[in-house]
Amino acid sequence: MSRSPRRLPSPALVISLVALFVSLGGVSYAVTQIGTSQIKNGAVTGKKIRNSTIRSRDVRRNSLGPRAIAESKLRVGFATGAGNALTSNGFSTFAVVGANGVIARGRGVSSTVRTGAGRYQVIFNRNVRNCAYVGSLGVVGATPPGSGELSTAALASNVNGAFVRTFDSNGAAGDHSFHLLVSC
């Protein structure tokens, strides 16, 4: 029976294997032995952190500051109920009222009434006392409005109400349809 001669590994292979085991041992030693107390403050910078490795639970609450988050990185896809800047909680309240005091359309309006010549009350479903009222003469349909003037104020008898007065071109009280926008 003939035996094949046993070959010993070359010295280069032995040295490379020893180097591999030492390097792996050093990494595992570092992982188990180096903690936060051994890392100098400011030593780990943003460039040294791999993307997607730090989660919100790893960062202390309110520690990033207002300038740390770029607006271009914010995702708004999950804010379905937010609307937009004009409808979030301000310009979403409006009324289009005919010259007879009847509401044609609106949002957040409880009732409207004509109380006299050119005098109207618009009641909303929330407190609008400290809001801004923006009004303009306008029609209910798709025809051009007539000329005249309009003034708005908070309704003294109800915190949910706005008072609107309309005038003709000469300044006399007159019935006109109008658009009222409430911004809080």
Main attributes of the structure:
184 residues; alpha+beta; four-stranded antiparallel beta sheet; 1 helix; 12% helix
Please render the helix and strand layout as text.
Elements: H1 11-33, E1 93-97, E2 103-107, E3 109-116, E4 119-124, E5 132-137, E6 149-154, E7 161-167, E8 178-183
Antiparallel strand pairs: 1-2, 1-8, 3-4, 4-7, 5-8, 6-7
Descriptive account of the structure:
There is one protein chain. The chain is an alpha+beta fold and 184 residues long. It has a domain of 91 residues. Helix content is 12%, strand content 27%. A hairpin with a 2-residue loop joins strand 3 and strand 4. The longest helix is centred in the first third of the chain and has 23 residues.
